[in-house]
Amino acid sequence: MKTQLFLFLLLFGTISYSAQAQDADSTAFKPVNATIFLKDGTQLRGLLLSESPVGVRIRTDNLGEMTVTTDKIERVEKNMDGFYRNGQYWFPNPHSTRYFFAPSALPLSRREGYYQNAYVFVNSVSVGVTDHFTMGGGFVLNPTFRDWQVVFLTPKISFPSQSNVTFSLGVIAIGVFNRRYEYDPQTGVSRKNGFGTDLAGIGYGTLTFGDAERNGSVGLGWGFSDSDIGSSPVINLSYMTRVGRKLGFVTENWIVIPSQNSDTGAVLSGGLRFFGEKMSVDLALLVPTASGVGFIAIPYVDFVVLFGQKKKKK
Fold it and tell me: What is the pLDDT of residue 125?
């Protein structure tokens, strides 16, 4: 009888200690965002709830909570970027460095980039050369491949601060290569006379308030054309916010300050951005305004494809 009582107490004590140890481990483990890479190539992304030598428990968007045994796991990557809202994982906004065409002051990470196509014919690529310097360039496709061609460069250097304020300096430089014609008064015919180049653009500074999920920018720049500089500045007011997991609102507005030689003019725009982790589509309306001009709304559409690897937050 004494032997049976001793064995019972020993077994009860072992079970109690094991349960307490598991509770302590469970209490000590803090759920984190993670991606589980399985040996069969499957990836499970979600909130890692617990981890032990036997396996892990994770909560995913599509499959809910599930346990994965260690023998099926190749590796686990913790602390990935992103956040959870109402129990659903939201990946970081990958399109925070630009509005429609105007850039924010936020930089691309080194070796991160994107290809952008607007109206089918306007093509551009931007790449993070360093974590603070972005280089972009592109061209306007001439379907006839004759008489003219437009190319542009968009370098930008960013100066991030410890707060959610970023300053940048940049240039949007446009070159127009066009065929020159010379009029012959004797024959009354214009003849081809080689190619010429016209340069124009804007140098600007931008101050961006906010982060990747929501930010607004105030930009100030001066236009130039060949050797001339604009007599009045151009102001850019832009804003973006994420209104859904894969939906954002964007507005970009250019305002020309009046001068002795020009009246006030502006191009206002607003629209929606539908996006995933690697692609986005913008649908918006552009509204040019000027004295004597009636209401005009021009549809705007573009799509963007990301490439490279975004630098992970430490």
Answer: 97
More confident of the two residues 111 and 146? 111
Do 77 and 148 have their domain in common? no
Q: Are residues 144 and 71 in the same domain?
A: no
Residue indicated by tokens 């180049």? 197
Q: Name the average pLDDT for the chain.
A: 84
User: Is the pLDDT confidence value at 312 over 80?
Assistant: no
- Residue 81 confidence (pLDDT): 64
Distance (Å, rounded) from C-alpha 172 to C-alpha 102? 9
Asked if the structure places residue 256 within a domain, the reply is yes
Angle at alpha carbon of residue 220, lines to 216 and 226, rounded to 5°: 135
Q: Which residue from 53, 104, 101, 102 is spatially nearest to 76, judged by alpha carbons?
A: 53
Three-state secondary-structure class, residue 290:
strand
Same domain? 155 vs 46: no
Domain presence at residue 14 = yes
Structural domain including 70 reads 2-83
